Amino acid sequence: xxxxxxxxxxxxxxxxxxxxxxxxxxxxxxxxxxxxxxxxxxxxxxxxxxxxxxxxxxxxxxxxxxxxxxxxxxxxxxxxxxxxxxxxxxxxxxxxxxxxxxxxxxxxxxxxxxxxxxxxxxxxxxxxxxxxxxxxxxxxxxxxxxxxxxxxxxxxxxxxxxxxxxxxxxxxxxxxxxxxxxxxxxxxxxxxxxx
Amino acid sequence: xxxxxxxxxxxxxxxxxxxxxxxxxxxxxxxxxxxxxxxxxxxxxxxxxxxxxxxxxxxxxxxxxxxxxxxxxxxxxxxxxxxxxxxxxxxxxxxxxxxxxxxxxxxxxxxxxxxxxxxxxxxxxxxxxxxxxxxxxxxxxxxxxxxxxxxxxxxxxxxxxxxxxxxxxxxxxxxxxxxxxxxxxxxxxxxxxxx
Lengths: 195, 195
Known about the structure:
2 copies of one chain form a homodimer.
Chain A: E1 7-12, H1 18-31, E2 35-40, H2 41-46, H3 57-75, E3 79-84, H4 90-100, E4 103-108, H5 112-118, H6 123-128, E5 150-152, H7 159-172, H8 188-193
Helix pairs in contact in A: 1-7, 3-4
C-alpha cells in the first residue's frame, strides 16, 4: 500500500513505556490497513545486536541514525516505521528530523519517579546503585523535546489511549487519509436503500 | 508488490566494484517491476553517519548487523534489499545469513591487484602508505566467502554483466518468478492471431 511517507519516533526515558506505546500504535495502524514496522531500539540491542553496542554518546548517536536510515527506506516504500528509542540527545533528533523530512516526534513524557517505580527491567535500580554506567536519567542526560508533535504521560494513559492520541495527531497533520472508523457500525439504512 | 523475501548481500574488498554492481542489480530488478533498495555501507558512512562510525572489528560487525536488520524489515514488506558492504568477517556474514534465512551472498571477487590499481577513492594508496589504519586487505583481514551463491570477477565483468549473472542466480534459486524478458521482442504473430 502506497501512502505519503512519514516516521513516528517515540523518545523518552528508560521505562517510560515507549515499547508498549509503539506496539499499540502499530496495532492501531495495522487495523486500518497500513503496513507498519516497529524499530525497537532496546529489543534490537538485546537480540540481533547481541548487546554488542554500547551506550557512549557516540554509539547512541550512530545507532539512532541507523534507525533513521532504516525508517527512511521503509517509509518511502509505503511502510510506516514506528521507532521506539531513548534517543536522548536533542542534536541527534534534530539531525534525524532534517534527514527524514516528515517526522512525528512523540515524547513519552512519563515522570521519572514513575519510570523508577515501574522499573520493568530492573535497570533503574542497578543504575541508581552505580552498577550500570551511562544510564539515561542517572549519569547520562535526557534532553526532552521542546516542541514534539505529541507529548504523552504514559504514567496516566494506557498504551491504547496513547496510541489513540498519536493517531489523532497523524490525522490532524494530514498523514493519514481519513477512513471510516472500524469502530463505526455500517449504516444499514444507507446500504438497504441501494439494494 | 509482494513476493517472497530475500536479501542480496554483496561482499568484497574496497574497490572491488560492489557499489556499481549494486546499482546495476537494482536497475535490473526495478526494470522488472520489483521494489528495490540499495543499502550502500560506504555511502551511508559518508552521508548520514557522517563518518562517525569507525572500522574496528566491533564497529564493522554491528554496522553489518544494522544493515541486516534494515534488510529484513524491507524484504518482509516486499522490497528487495541490495546490500553493498565490505563485510569482511565470515562469522558476521554467517550470523546474518542465519538471521535472514533467505540470503544471496554475492562475492565481488575482483583481484586485489585490480582493486589497488583502480583505487577509485585513493584509499588503497593511503592505506599502503600507512596513513589509514584498519584497512581491509592491508592491515585488516578479508575473509572470502567459501560458498557464496554467486562469485564474480568485476575486474573482467562490467557491472551490467555482473548484474545479469546475479539475476540468473536469483532465477535458479527460485527467488524471481520467471517473467517475459524485457529484452525479448513481443510475438507479433501470436498477438495478431488473437485480434
